[in-house]
Amino acid sequence: MVGTTSSGSSSTSNENLGHVVFITAAAAIGGFLFGYDSAVINGAVTGIQKHFGIGAAETGVVVAIALLGSAVGAWIAGGMADRWGRTRTMQVAAILFAVSSVGQALPFAVWDLALWRVLAGVGIGMASVIGPAYIAEVAPAAYRGRLGSFQQLAIVLGIAVSQLVNYGIAQFAGGSVNNTLFGLQAWQWMLGACVLPAALYLIFASIIPESPRYLIAAGKTQRARKVLAEVESDDTDLDSRIAEIKKSLHTEQRTRLRDLRGPALGLLPIVWIGILLSAFQQLVGINVIFYYSASLWQSVGINQSNSLLISFSTSIINIVGTFIAIALVDRIGRKPLLLIGSTGMAVALATAAWAFSAGVPSGENVTLPATQGTVALVAAHVFVLFFALSWGVVVWVLLGEMFPNRLRAVALSVAATAQWLANWLITVSFPSLAEWNLSATYVIYACFAALSFVFVMFKVRETKGRKLEEMG
């Protein structure tokens, strides 16, 4: 929720702020699952290829098919959140996470694994929508950027933990993801481990309060008043806040997809901005690092165990960058961070493309000269750092706050769906593109990073410090 000021001088008490931080962190566990379940496939890719005897194209389909499920989950989450409430939608996502984790650990065929990954993707997509929306609706304006960043922080922590767990399981299995542990191959344990944080998400989603905006929309004003008293500053006039939210809600009808129609190629301009922000976040190729880095580094001559360790190191860089973004997003604003990130990513990706251009074929893989190999590793880490301190955090913050109240849930669903479709396109195409020309593939990603700079410069408005009721 918004506080009484937007300048950062809110008198939110320590007790209230602590409560807001707790419920925000609890909601962001969905982001942890999002990151964990998205990236855990990184360590399992080689094992799946060997176990089922599939090639690059089939591997791309198995890895990327979860993203189609994510697009579906993102598409339906907004409507579910408006009908059932934010917390109930979180509970459904948690159950989907848990069930799909068990299914992925016990596949009897590659198509069976793919179906379970679709179901996991639905849960991921739902979490990608409901987390930012819920956090934006309970966070005071003065802290909303930082609290909104919890979603991305949770995602990068999930990515890092998944890589660490993958490395630990592989080491425990003797260094190979196809070795057997307690009756299952190591890669199966990797995919099944997500059931534990899924159970934690379900527990927390069952105890945190419902969004005051949803409660007021559902006619549960007294419950909304209680939640507002817990999250707003001590000197907030609760009657005025409730009246303000009611006025905002009552001036609109329940939003449907047709309400997003506008003069700009069939959609409102603000919706297109959300779609393009989401698409650019993925078209720079960030998830190539998180889905394929282990097999990528193996393809340029690094052994399986060390490739998993490198994947973990990029996850640590991801966390560092996210903390930088959290520290800066409410100070220097959303737009400057995006511009800084676009510049850094474009340079890093172009540098990686140069390094990979020196690859020398060696059997099924390639070998990089020592200098280019080092440059490629450094460039990959720099790319992740600039993504994490900018687009990784800021896009989720913007998507949670940039849309007007009457459009927020549905517009966020559309934007998140576009994000998952762009993610799917990059993920499904990378194995085949890498076989064709790894260097040229990274040139493509660098071009998208450069285009993202132009887009932000001319089309994205700053939202720092503005009330949600002022967005539009």
UniProtKB/TrEMBL annotation:
<dbReference type="InterPro" id="IPR047984">
    <property type="entry name" value="XylE-like"/>
</dbReference>
<keyword id="KW-0762">Sugar transport</keyword>
<feature type="domain" description="Major facilitator superfamily (MFS) profile">
    <location>
        <begin position="23"/>
        <end position="464"/>
    </location>
</feature>
<feature type="transmembrane region" description="Helical">
    <location>
        <begin position="189"/>
        <end position="208"/>
    </location>
</feature>
<keyword id="KW-1003">Cell membrane</keyword>
<feature type="transmembrane region" description="Helical">
    <location>
        <begin position="56"/>
        <end position="77"/>
    </location>
</feature>
<comment type="similarity">
    <text>Belongs to the major facilitator superfamily. Sugar transporter (TC 2.A.1.1) family.</text>
</comment>
<feature type="transmembrane region" description="Helical">
    <location>
        <begin position="114"/>
        <end position="135"/>
    </location>
</feature>
<keyword id="KW-0812">Transmembrane</keyword>
<feature type="transmembrane region" description="Helical">
    <location>
        <begin position="440"/>
        <end position="458"/>
    </location>
</feature>
<feature type="transmembrane region" description="Helical">
    <location>
        <begin position="376"/>
        <end position="399"/>
    </location>
</feature>
<keyword id="KW-0813">Transport</keyword>
<feature type="transmembrane region" description="Helical">
    <location>
        <begin position="17"/>
        <end position="36"/>
    </location>
</feature>
<dbReference type="InterPro" id="IPR020846">
    <property type="entry name" value="MFS_dom"/>
</dbReference>
<feature type="transmembrane region" description="Helical">
    <location>
        <begin position="147"/>
        <end position="169"/>
    </location>
</feature>
<dbReference type="InterPro" id="IPR050814">
    <property type="entry name" value="Myo-inositol_Transporter"/>
</dbReference>
<feature type="transmembrane region" description="Helical">
    <location>
        <begin position="336"/>
        <end position="356"/>
    </location>
</feature>
<keyword id="KW-0472">Membrane</keyword>
<feature type="transmembrane region" description="Helical">
    <location>
        <begin position="411"/>
        <end position="434"/>
    </location>
</feature>
<dbReference type="InterPro" id="IPR005828">
    <property type="entry name" value="MFS_sugar_transport-like"/>
</dbReference>
<dbReference type="InterPro" id="IPR003663">
    <property type="entry name" value="Sugar/inositol_transpt"/>
</dbReference>
<protein>
    <submittedName>
        <fullName>Sugar transporter</fullName>
    </submittedName>
</protein>
<dbReference type="Pfam" id="PF00083">
    <property type="entry name" value="Sugar_tr"/>
</dbReference>
<dbReference type="InterPro" id="IPR036259">
    <property type="entry name" value="MFS_trans_sf"/>
</dbReference>
<feature type="transmembrane region" description="Helical">
    <location>
        <begin position="264"/>
        <end position="290"/>
    </location>
</feature>
<feature type="transmembrane region" description="Helical">
    <location>
        <begin position="310"/>
        <end position="329"/>
    </location>
</feature>
<keyword id="KW-1133">Transmembrane helix</keyword>
<dbReference type="InterPro" id="IPR005829">
    <property type="entry name" value="Sugar_transporter_CS"/>
</dbReference>
<feature type="transmembrane region" description="Helical">
    <location>
        <begin position="89"/>
        <end position="108"/>
    </location>
</feature>
